[in-house]
Design goal:
With 448 residues, the chain is of the alpha+beta class. The protein has 15 helices and twelve strands. The chain has helices spanning 11-16, 34-42, 66-71, 84-88, 98-113, 141-156, 168-180, 195-203, 215-223, 229-233, 237-243, 246-255, 286-306, 345-359, 390-410, and strands spanning 26-31, 51-54, 61-64, 92-95, 118-123, 126-130, 160-165, 187-189, 273-283, 309-320, 331-342, 366-378. A five-stranded mixed β-sheet has the order 5-6-1-7-8. Strand 2 and strand 3 (61-64) form a beta hairpin.
Length: 448
């Protein structure tokens, strides 16, 4: 535990009775090694062991535990290219279990939502909180960060780090410092330090650690002599804008404590919805492709209804494996403007089947199918046509609503169209899939 005394409470103003000015404070909270940590919560044998989670069809590494990182396993590394000696050292690999990860994320975000006035869920394992004004009612924002960390750990078994700053960009950097420096115990308030201490920390960080500064931009900045976060902070914003973009200019302003990025409490609606998966085995028949297309379409339509939109355009695509040049190649997609914008799974399915008939060619080994819904608009703004069967439409809306309700309550694909198939032998490989511990009664952990 550090001995730094945060300065978030303006005691002078409290003593004089003057109304203090609210300080802008953001916190970035993220779960450490999220996918691997979710797996370890329900299988303690994985704690402290090298573990990776693989992508769809068990292809590449998409998540690593700290121990796997220490072995040198890279993100995106194909599993079959991971050296055997690592596996001999106890390296475990699990198939990605997105049902489990999504439910654990929901639990974490729900807890976080109760620990700050405002919240922005940034990704499945990251969340911004607005701590503005909380310095007046708590003795230390860093202590509040520690409270968050302890509560998440106690209630979910997951470990988070908390970074606090006057802007979202500074909060991101503070989170990085909290994660990499154990002396902060997982909670770091950049603004509680003196100017000299802040400069010391920012000078120790590579400029590539700044939120939004990627690999190519890092190289360009270093060519200009901007090597550290402090260097970028001291750069002339107008010069940065002239040589790069207004986005990077705002980043410089954020590093200097000028908040340019607001908290987005409501996620913007998607402008397009894509549902696409690779198959777990070779697919050659139109029947298997039809099952896959209708399965992906059902998922896309469910997302469409969840955000209250309707689609005016549908695209269906199929393709062979481009990484097998020794077999005949085929890759084609077609789009169709719908007669009426809709979110009806059955109507969209009829279009998709007709489009697949146009796409399908015999003699190819197909590896992937995709569905994309575009030209999205709010459902409440749907135009009514002159000859519309209003009673029939309302009946179909109730049918789709019932479909979504059942699938939310009893699990994805509990109810589906018959054309989507039952056995789905083409579905992706998930050879080492853990149980859906939190969303399926049959998968509840047992104590022996």
């Amino acid at each position: 535990m550090d001995t730094t005394t945060p300065s978030s409470v303006n005691t002078a103003s409290l003593a004089t009775g003057a109304r203090p000015r609210l300080q802008t404070r953001f916190a970035l909270v993220d779960v450490n090694n999220f996918y691997c940590s979710c797996e370890a919560v329900f299988d303690p044998r994985l704690v402290g062991k090298p573990l990776v989670v693989l992508s769809n069809n068990d292809g590449c590494v998409v998540a690593r535990s700290a121990e796997a990182k220490a072995l040198g396993i890279k993100m995106g590394q194909p599993w079959h290219l991971v050296p055997r000696e690592f596996k001999a050292q106890g390296l475990k690999a699990l198939s990605s279990n997105y049902t489990l990860y999504a439910d654990m994320s929901h639990r974490v975000m729900t807890i976080l939502g109760g620990m700050a006035p405002r919240q922005e869920v940034y990704s499945i394992d990251e969340c911004f909180l607005d701590f503005s004004g909380m310095g007046l009612i708590t003795t230390s924002l860093r202590d509040h960060g520690l409270l968050i960390r302890n509560r998440i750990q106690q209630w979910t078994g997951l470990t988070v780090c908390v970074g606090i700053g006057s802007t979202k960009t500074r909060a991101k950097l503070a989170n990085h410092i909290a994660k990499k420096n154990p002396q902060w115990a997982g909670s770091f308030d950049l603004e509680s330090l003196s100017i000299d201490e802040q400069q010391q920390w920012l000078s120790s960080l590579d400029v590539g650690e700044v939120w939004g500064v990627g690999g190519r931009l890092t190289e360009q900045l270093k060519a200009m002599g901007i090597n550290t976060v402090q260097d970028l902070k001291e750069a002339n914003p107008k010069r940065i804008r002239g040589q790069f973009s207004v986005v990077l200019e705002r980043t410089v302003e954020e590093l200097n404590g000028i908040s340019c990025l607001v908290l987005e409490e409501l996620s913007p609606k998607k402008q397009q919805i894509l549902s696409s998966r690779s198959f777990g085995r070779h697919v050659t028949s139109e029947a298997d492709l039809r099952e896959a297309v209708l399965t992906y379409l059902a998922r896309a339509a469910e997302k469409l209804r969840a955000q209250g939109s309707i689609a005016g355009m549908l695209q269906v695509g199929i393709r062979t494996n481009p990484f097998k040049p020794d077999v005949p190649q085929y890759n084609k997609a077609i789009s169709c403007k719908l007669a009426e914008a809709t979110d009806d799974t059955l109507v969209l399915g009829q279009y998709a089947i007709r489009m697949l008939k146009q796409l399908y060619r015999e003699g190819y080994i197909y590896q992937k199918a995709s569905i994309m819904l575009t030209d999205l608009s709010p459902r409440t703004e749907r135009q009514i046509t002159l000859f519309e069967d209003t009673a029939g439409r309302e009946k179909r809306e109730r049918l789709n609503a019932a479909l979504d309700t059942v699938n939310r309550r009893y699990g994805s694909r509990t109810l589906q169209t018959a054309g989507a198939g039952i056995h789905k032998s083409w579905s992706m490989k998930r050879g080492n899939l853990s149980a859906a511990y939190t969303t399926d009664w049959r998968s509840l952990p047992t104590v022996q």
